[in-house]
UniProtKB/TrEMBL annotation:
Residues 628-641, 903-915 have a biased composition (Low complexity). Residues 651-894 form the ABC transporter domain. The keyword Protein transport does not apply. Residues 628-647, 891-932 are annotated as: Disordered. It is a multi-pass membrane protein. This is ABC transporter. SUPFAM superfamilies: P-loop containing nucleoside triphosphate hydrolases. It is found in: Cell membrane. The chain crosses the membrane at residues 6-26, 33-50, 56-83, 95-115, 142-159, 193-213, 225-250, 257-278, 303-321, 328-348, 378-400, 406-424, 455-475, 506-525, 537-560, 580-596. Residues 919-932 have a biased composition (Acidic residues). GO terms for molecular function: ATP binding; ATP hydrolysis activity; branched-chain amino acid transmembrane transporter activity.
Length: 932
C-alpha cells in the first residue's frame, strides 16, 4: 500500500510538471521555440497571486483570474517585444533569448521578494481524501491532476480538429509557408504564447501554496517539464502529460526508497539523456539546417597592448586599489576565465553548454579535496582539479556526440543538475553546509590566501587569466581551433575533410571544463572553505547569458562579460553608485535581451571601433582586420605535377542498395571509378545520385553492396576514415565554413591531425602551412587573391571553386563532385569542366561527377552512368549514353529523331528534368550532343 501511496503523491507532483510541459509543447508548436522561461512564468503567476490575494487582500477567485491575466500579458509582451523582432535569428539564439527572459524575471523577483520562501494560502481545499483503500491524496493535488487531464484533452482536441490548431502546428515546421497561405505567423505565435503563459501563471497560483513561493525553486520547475516535453518531442500533448506524470511518480518513489539524496532530481534526466543519445546520430542528417552563428575573433595576440594591459593591472592590484577592489577584480578575473571556457565550447566549437558553472564547482571541490584530504600543495591541486574537471567535462559532452542544438542545451542543463544533485550535494564528498576547508594557499612558500593577502591573490588570478586568454587565443589560430570552427560551422563538411568531429567536441568540452576548474578554484579559494551552494545550476545560465552579452566568440567579449557577473567589478561600481549593486542581475538580463534583439554579436564587437581608436591613441599598431595576415603562408607557385602524390586508387562499388524506411533511394548500383577517368552520374531529381555519394563517403549506411578502395572493403569505415584514406567529396550546397577565410577552409583540409596538436596548439599554434596539393589547388583554381576573404564575400561561382579546391587540398585519390556546376554560367561551367579533366589527367584522380548540366557531363566524362529511380538505366561512353533511346525517352525527354530545338542559352546551367533536356540541346558543339 505504501508504494501506491507514493505513486499517488508522485501523480500529484507530475500533474504540476504537466502544466508546465503542456505550455512548452504549446509554445514550440506555435512558434518553434523551446521556452526555458516557462518556470519563470509560473513564478510570476505565483507572485501575482500573492500580490492580489495576500498583499491586496482580494478574494481567491479574482486573485487567480488576475494572476492568470498577468501571465497572459507577459506572454504577449515576450513574444511581441523580444521574439518577434528575432524572427530571423537562429533557434539557438531564440532559446538564449528565453534564457534572458528567465534571468530577467528571476532577477526582478529576487529584487522584490528576496531569495527566501514566502507562504501563500491555498484557495483549494487541502484535506486528504481516500483515493484507494488505505491511500490518500490532497484535494488540491486531485484538482490539479484533473486540470491537467482536461487541459491535455482540450489542447489535443484544438490542435487536432480546429483549423487554428492545424495552422499553429505548421508554424514550428515552416513559418514562411504558413504566411504564404494568408495566415499571420505573429498572430498565431502571440496566441500560443498568451495561452501558454496564462497556463503557467495559473499553475503558479495553484502550486504556490503547495511549494511556497521562491524564485529559484519555481524557475527550476522548468527542468522536469523540459524532460517531459522532450519525451513528447515537443509535439504531443498526451505524451507530455503522461511523461510528466511518470517523472513525478519516479521521483516520488526514488525519494522514498533511495536513501542517497539527489537521485530524485537526477533520474529523469539520466533517462532523458540516454534517450537523446540513443535517438541521435553522430553526424547530422543532410536536411540539418545550418544556423547563423556568432562571429569569432581571429585570436591574434597584440604583444605590446597585452603587456601594457597586464602590467597596468598588476600595478593597480599590487599598489593602488583597496582590498575590496582587489577582491572585486579577482572575482571578475575568475569569471573571465569561466567566460573564456564558454568561448571555447560554445563560441569556437558551437556546443551550447549550460553546465559551465557547475563544472567550475566540480573543479573547486576536486582541488579542495586534493588540498584538504590528500595534503597536496596549491599548484598540484589546481592541475589535478583541471584534469579531473576535464574528465567530468568529457562525461558532460557525451550527449553532444549524438545530439546538437537545443536538445544539447537541454542535455547539458540536465548534466549540470545531475552533477550538482549527485556529486556536489553529496555530504560525504563535499561536506554539505560546512564544505571542505582549504587553509591558506601558497606557491613555493609564497602565501597568497585571499583573506590575509588579497593583493597576492589578485596577482595569482591575473596570471591565471593571462595564461588562459593566451591559450584560448593560440587555440583559435592553430589547427585545433580551425577544426573546432569547422565542426561548429558544418559537421558533415568537417567529417568529409577527415576532421574527427567527435574528438573535436570532446576536446572542446574537456578544455572548457579545465578552464572552468581554474575559475572555480579561484572563486572558491577566496574563502575558508569550498561550499556546494556556491555553484548552483542557474548561475551557469547567467554565465552563458553574459558571455552572449560580451560576445561569445571573442576573447575581448569574454573579458567584458566577466565584469557583469555577480561580485565583480560591475557589482563594485554599482555599489559605489548609491548601493545599486542588487540591480546588476536585472540590468544584465535586460542587456542580454537587448543584444539578442538587436541581432548583433555582443558588446565587444559593437564597440570594436572604440577599441581600435584606443589602440591608435596608445600608438600601437592599428588592430588588423579579422582576417589573418595576407603574408602568412602566401602560396608559392606550385604546379599540380610538382608535388609528390599519394598512389592513385580505384573505387569500386557493386550492387549498392540504400533504403530510407520504405523509400529505396539506390537499388543495385555498380560503379567503377578508375584513376585518370571522370565518371559521370546523371539522372532526374530524386534518382539517388547524392545518396550514392553519401554511401560511398560514409554518410549513409547502405543496406546492401560492397564498396572497395582498391581491394580493401571500406563499407564499414566512418566518413572520416574514408576521407583520410583519400576519398573526398564536394557538396551540392557547398557547405563551406563560413567563419573561416578561404585559406583556413583549405587549411582544414590539409592540416595534419596529430594528437599532440591538442596540447601544443595552446602554447605554440604556428602559422598556417598549406601543403603542396593545397598550394597547387590555389594556383589551379586561381584563388590567390581570395585567400583572406570569407566565403560569404565571394561571388557564387568563386565559392563553388573554393568548395572543390578544398576537397582537392586534401590530396584525394578519389573525388566525388556533387553538382559542382549548379548555378554557374556556361562559360564558368566550361572552365570547370576543363579543371575537372585536369584533375583526372594530371593529378591522376578517380572522379565521379554528378551533374544536371548534361553538356558538361558529355564533354568532360569518359564514361557515364544514368540512374532512374535509384536503379541504373544505362551506362557507357557519353556517346553511347546520349544515343541510348531509353535515356533519351526517360531522362532527356524526347525522341532521338526529333529535331534539335533552338540553342537557347541557359544561364542557370541547371534545372529539373525539363531543364535538363534543354541543357542536352545545348550540347550542339559535339555531334553526339546534338543528337540527344
Ligand atoms: N535521409 C533521407 N530520408 C528519407 N529519404 C531520403 C533521405 N535522403 C534522400 N532520400 C530520398 O532518396 C531519394 C534519392 O534522393 P537523392 O537526393 O539521392 O536524389 P538525387 O538524384 O541526388 O536528387 P537531386 O538531383 O534532386 O539532388 C529521394 O526520393 C529522396 O527523397
Amino acid at each position: 500500500m505504501e508504494v501506491v501511496q507514493f505513486i499517488l503523491l508522485g501523480l500529484g507532483i507530475g500533474a504540476i510538471y504537466s502544466l508546465l510541459g503542456q505550455g512548452l509543447v504549446l509554445i514550440y508548436r506555435g512558434s518553434g521555440i523551446v521556452n526555458f522561461a516557462q518556470g519563470s512564468l509560473v513564478m510570476v503567476g505565483g507572485y501575482a497571486y500573492y500580490e492580489f490575494r495576500v498583499a491586496a487582500g482580494w478574494p481567491a477567485l479574482p486573485a487567480v483570474v488576475c494572476a492568470t491575466a498577468v501571465g497572459v500579458l507577459l506572454g504577449v509582451a515576450v513574444q511581441h517585444l523580444i521574439l518577434r523582432p528575432m524572427r530571423t535569428s537562429s533557434p539557438i539564439e531564440r532559446v538564449i533569448a528565453t534564457l534572458g527572459v528567465l534571468l530577467t524575471l528571476q532577477a526582478a523577483a529576487v529584487l522584490r521578494y528576496g531569495v527566501g520562501p514566502i507562504s501563500v494560502p491555498s484557495f483549494l481545499p487541502t484535506d486528504a481524501v481516500e483515493v484507494l483503500p488505505g491511500t490518500t491524496l490532497g484535494v488540491d493535488r486531485l484538482v490539479i491532476l484533473l486540470i491537467g487531464v482536461l487541459l491535455t484533452a482540450a489542447l489535443y482536441a484544438v490542435f487536432r480538429w480546429t483549423s487554428f490548431g492545424r495552422v499553429a502546428s505548421a508554424m514550428a515546421e515552416n513559418q514562411r509557408a504558413v504566411a504564404s497561405l494568408g495566415h499571420s505567423p505573429d498572430r498565431i505565435a502571440t496566441a500560443n504564447w498568451a495561452l501558454a503563459a496564462g497556463i503557467a501563471a495559473l499553475a503558479g497560483a495553484l502550486i504556490g501554496p503547495i511549494t511556497y513561493l521562491q524564485p529559484t525553486q519555481l524557475t527550476l520547475l522548468i527542468v522536469p517539464a523540459l524532460a517531459a516535453a522532450l519525451l513528447a518531442r515537443f509535439v504531443s500533448f498526451p505524451i507530455a502529460f503522461a511523461g510528466a506524470l511518470a517523472i513525478g511518480v519516479v521521483q516520488s518513489l526514488i525519494t522514498r526508497y533511495v536513501t542517497v539524496t539527489g537521485w530524485g532530481d537526477s533520474v529523469p534526466f539520466i533517462v532523458i539523456i540516454a534517450y537523446l543519445v540513443l535517438r541521435g546520430s553522430s553526424l547530422p542528417l543532410r536536411s540539418h539546417v545550418l544556423e547563423r552563428l556568432p562571429s569569432v575573433g581571429d585570436g591574434r595576440i597584440r604583444v605590446v597592448p597585452t603587456v601594457v594591459i597586464v602590467g597596468v593591472f598588476a600595478f593597480l592590484i599590487a599598489f593602488v586599489v583597496s582590498p575590496v577592489w582587489a577582491q572585486a577584480l579577482t572575482v571578475t578575473m575568475a569569471f573571465a576565465i569561466l567566460t573564456l571556457s564558454v568561448t571555447v565550447v560554445t563560441g569556437y566549437a558551437g556546443q551550447l553548454s549550460l553546465a559551465q558553472y557547475v563544472l567550475a564547482g566540480a573543479g573547486a571541490f576536486a582541488a579542495a579535496t586534493f588540498v584538504h584530504r590528500a595534503g597536496w600543495g596549491f599548484l598540484p591541486a589546481l592541475i589535478g582539479a583541471m584534469l579531473a574537471a576535464a574528465l567530468v567535462g568529457v562525461l558532460v559532452a557525451l550527449p553532444a556526440l549524438r545530439t546538437r542544438g537545443i536538445n544539447l542545451a537541454i542535455a547539458t542543463l540536465g548534466m549540470g543538475i545531475v552533477l550538482f544533485s549527485l556529486v556536489l550535494s553529496d555530504f560525504a564528498l563535499t561536506g554539505g553546509d560546512v564544505g571542505i576547508p582549504i587553509g591558506e594557499p601558497s606557491i613555493f612558500g609564497w602565501d597568497f590566501g585571499a583573506i590575509r593577502h588579497p593583493y597576492n591573490y589578485g596577482l595569482v588570478a591575473l596570471a591565471a587569466l593571462t595564461l588562459s586568454a593566451l591559450a584560448v587565443a593560440n587555440l583559435r589560430r592553430g589547427r585545433v581551433g580551425r577544426r573546432l570552427l569547422a565542426v561548429r560551422s558544418n559537421e558533415r563538411a568537417a567529417a568529409a575533410l577527415g576532421v574527427n568531429v567527435l574528438v573535436g567536441k570532446l576536446y572542446a568540452f574537456a578544455l572548457a571544463s579545465a578552464l572552468a576548474a581554474v575559475a572555480g578554484v579561484l572563486l572558491a579559494f577566496q574563502g575558508v572553505a569550498v561550499l556546494p551552494a556556491q555553484f548552483d545550476v542557474l548561475t551557469s545560465i547567467t554565465v552563458i547569458g553574459m558571455a552572449v552579452v560580451g560576445g561569445i566568440g571573442t576573447i575581448g567579449g569574454a573579458l567584458l562579460a566577466s565584469t557583469l557577473l555577480p561580485g565583480g567589478v560591475g557589482t563594485q561600481i554599482l555599489h559605489g553608485v548609491d548601493n545599486l549593486e542588487s540591480y546588476l542581475p536585472l540590468v544584465s538580463g535586460l542587456f542580454l535581451l537587448y543584444v539578442l534583439r538587436s541581432g548583433r554579436n555582443g558588446l565587444y564587437e559593437m564597440n570594436a571601433h572604440l577599441v581600435r581608436r584606443l589602440g591608435r591613441l596608445l600608438r600601437v599598431p592599428a588592430l588588423p582586420s579579422r582576417a589573418p595576415s595576407a603574408r602568412a603562408a602566401a602560396p608559392e607557385p606550385a604546379g599540380a605535377a610538382q608535388h609528390e602524390r599519394r598512389p592513385s586508387r580505384r573505387l569500386h562499388v557493386a550492387d549498392l542498395r540504400v533504403q530510407f524506411g520504405g523509400v529505396v533511394a539506390v537499388d543495385g548500383v555498380t560503379l567503377d571509378l578508375v584513376p585518370g577517368e571522370v565518371h559521370g552520374l546523371i539522372g532526374p531529381n530524386g534518382a539517388g545520385k547524392t545518396t550514392v555519394i553519401d554511401a560511398l563517403t560514409g554518410f549513409v549506411r547502405p543496406t546492401r553492396g560492397a564498396i572497395k578502395l582498391d581491394d580493401e572493403p571500406i563499407g564499414q569505415w566512418s566518413a572520416r576514415r574514408r576521407a583520410r584514406a583519400g576519398v573526398a567529396r564536394s557538396f551540392q550546397s557547398l557547405e563551406l565554413f563560413a567563419d573561416l577565410s578561404v585559406r583556413e577552409n583549405l587549411a582544414v583540409a590539409c592540416d595534419d591531425d596529430g594528437a599532440r596538436r591538442y596540447v601544443s596548439d595552446l602554447v605554440a599554434p604556428g602559422r598556417i602551412q598549406l601543403t603542396a596539393p593545397a598550394l597547387a589547388a590555389i594556383r589551379e583554381f586561381r584563388l590567390t587573391d581570395d585567400l583572406d576573404r570569407k566565403p560569404g564575400a565571394l561571388a557564387f561561382g568563386k565559392r563553388r571553386l573554393v568548395a572543390i579546391a578544398r576537397a582537392v587540398a586534401a590530396d584525394p585519390r578519389v573525388l566525388l563532385l556533387d553538382e559542382p556546376a549548379a548555378g554557374l554560367s556556361d562559360e564558368e561551367a566550361r572552365e570547370l569542366g576543363a579543371l575537372i579533366r585536369t584533375l583526372a589527367r594530371d593529378w591522376d584522380m578517380s572522379i565521379l561527377l554528378v551533374e544536371h548540366n548534361v553538356d558538361l557531363v558529355l564533354s568532360t566524362c569518359d564514361r557515364v552512368t544514368v540512374l532512374e529511380a535509384g536503379a541504373v538505366l544505362a551506362r557507357g561512353t557519353p556517346q553511347e549514353v546520349a544515343r541510348d533511346p531509353r535515356v533519351v525517352a526517360a531522362y532527356l525527354g524526347r525522341e532521338t529523331d526529333e529535331p534539335n530545338p533552338a540553342d537557347e542559352p541557359n544561364p542557370a546551367g541547371e534545372a529539373g528534368p525539363a531543364g535538363e533536356a534543354r541543357e542536352a540541346d545545348e550540347s550542339d558543339d559535339s555531334a553526339e550532343g546534338a543528337r540527344v
